[in-house]
Structures are given as structure tokens and as C-alpha cells.
Amino acid sequence: MLLETFNHPLLGYLKNRVVMSAMTRSFADQNHCVTAASAEYYARRAADGVGLILTEGTIVHPTGDGYNNVPYIYTQEQTESWKQVTQRVHEEDSKIFCQLWHCGRISHEDFTGGVPPVSSSNKQAGGINRQNNKPYGVPRALETEEIPQIYEMFRQGALNAIAANFDGVQLHLAHGYLADQFFDAAINDRTDKYGGSVENRCRFALELTEIILRELGPEKVMVRLSPSRGLGDGFYDWPDLDDMLAYLIPAFERMGLRMLDISCARADYYQTSGRIIRQIRPMWPHLIIGGASLLPGQAESELQEGFLDMVTWARFILANPDFVTRLREGKPLTPMESDMLKTLV
Prior knowledge:
Layout: E1 6-8, E2 12-14, E3 18-20, H1 36-48, E4 52-54, E5 58-59, H2 76-81, H3 83-91, E6 95-101, E7 118-119, E8 128-129, E9 134-135, E10 140-141, H4 147-163, E11 168-172, H5 178-183, H6 198-216, E12 221-225, E13 228-231, E14 234-237, H7 241-255, E15 259-262, H8 273-280, E16 287-292, H9 296-304, E17 310-313, H10 315-319, H11 323-329
Parallel strand pairs: 3-4, 3-17, 4-6, 5-6, 6-11, 7-10, 11-12, 12-15, 15-16, 16-17
Antiparallel strand pairs: 1-2, 8-9, 13-14
Helix pairs in contact: 1-3, 4-6, 6-7
């Protein structure tokens, strides 16, 4: 199944069920535009046969940044710069979605124009930010009336992505970034309609997704979630995990969302996202992508058993521009090494 052509009701014809997962690469120029080198990087994977590409996280507004040299899709110039990527990928008959990103509290004033990062609460992320080797910034809790402004950032980013000829967008609601800071009861201590109960903590993500669906339609909108993900040497689950999934997944389904990416952030698939996928599959008959750390045989099994519809890979595809060819020919895969992050190959 993995390498056979796949005709999906929303995505249309795909060369196979291989997905290049979003990976932060930090090679944007000084204006946060993508470059010709980035276009070549994506095109090389498309030419090898990757069916669907998810871009690196792409910032929807300067106040949502949290990383060095990451691309934006905020200004006209930034939007135009992405056209060289989409053109090259489409020339190779692959599809590409733009991952829309707001970091929330996983940031620092160094990246947000000197203003405090925003979050669901004023709880500071622990540890040292490797982007500037400083503690994370102390966030400011968004006021209730400010939240529609965040939705507008994503809405405009989504429209810009379509103007740049992307096939769709992925809303990054995972990995501890802004939307996840609303989901997570360990962070979200709000007393308004966006905090407290399961329903209230899901409200931000559901309202945002509904707005983007209304603009683009279900064939162009995917949501990334990480209810269970890697954290340090172990993994971390949302508080109230079962109740959260039982409410959130049917709510997404009722509003017309049809594509989910269940991500695990570099953790073991079976302990994290694979476990979540087995929990949500009975209530979600639509597209699910996931995987990230699976070996080819494991990926084939997840497809055959119906848990996944497409399989994501990140580090393997970064380390092997000829990933699909290696799978097809049964050749060994080169493991990713940290030095590979220093260049775009």
C-alpha cells in the first residue's frame, strides 16, 4: 500500500502514501522569506516521489515567532517567496501544504519584536531556549477580546498560502505551541470561556479551525495534534486525555474537518501517537496521517490494519533525499546526524 498510488476523496491523486513531515530548518533570509535553496530542498524530495509534503513551520505573524531564521507567510514579499517552492513541487507532481505556526510562550522577546510572547496564561516555559540560550520569555495571557486577533493572523496566513499556490494548509495545534497551551490544563489556568472545563480548553482550537474551514473548505485544511508527545527522555500526555479526545475529535468531525495529523515529536510512535490513533480511529473515519519514527515494515502494517491512511517521516526524509527510491529498492536508510541540520541538501 505504502508506495502504490493513492486517490483520496479530498486530496485527489497522490503518487503514494508517503508524507514528508514538517521540520524546522531555519534557512529563511533576513526578511523571513524562503530562498531558492529551500525550493531546491523541497523539490528534491518531490522529484524522488514523496506524495505529500508538509512545509516547515511558517509563522503567521511576527509576534508569533520563536525561532531563528524561520520563514513567515505574513507579508506580500514572504508570500511571493513561497511560489518558487510550490511551483517546483507541483512540477514534480507532488502536493504541498503550508504548516501555519504561532509559537505562543515557546519564545522570547528577542523574536517577538521586544513585546512579551502571548499564551493562554502567564506561565513561563521551563528550561533554556536553545534559539538564544536564554530562559523562555514570561508570556502575557491573552485577553478574551484579543483571541479573535489571533484567529485573524491564521486566517490571513491561510489566504496567503493559497495565494502562493499551496494545495492546502496545516494548522499547527501541537507540540506545546499556542493552541496546545490552551488544550493543556497544566498551562491553561484561565477563568473565562477559554479555560477550565474540557469544552472551554478546546474552544480556541475549534473556533480557529472552523474559521479556516469556512475560508478554504475541508479539502485544503489539515490539523496537527499531539495529545501524547516526546518530552525529555519520556513522554507527556494531555491532562484529562480521554475526556479531551472524546469531546474534541467528534467536534472536529461535526464542523467538517476531514484530515488529522497525529504527531509525537520525536518520541516512540507506539507509546505516543500510535496509542492515540488507536483511541481516536473508531470515532474518526477520515484521513489520519502519522508515523514519524516508523520503519518501513511497521508503516506498511499500520496502513494495512487501517490505523493510518498516509505515513509521515521527518528525520529519515531529511537524511535521505532519495527516501522513496530507497524504500522501493529495499536499500538501507541513512540515519540523521546533527551535522545534517547545518545545510539544505
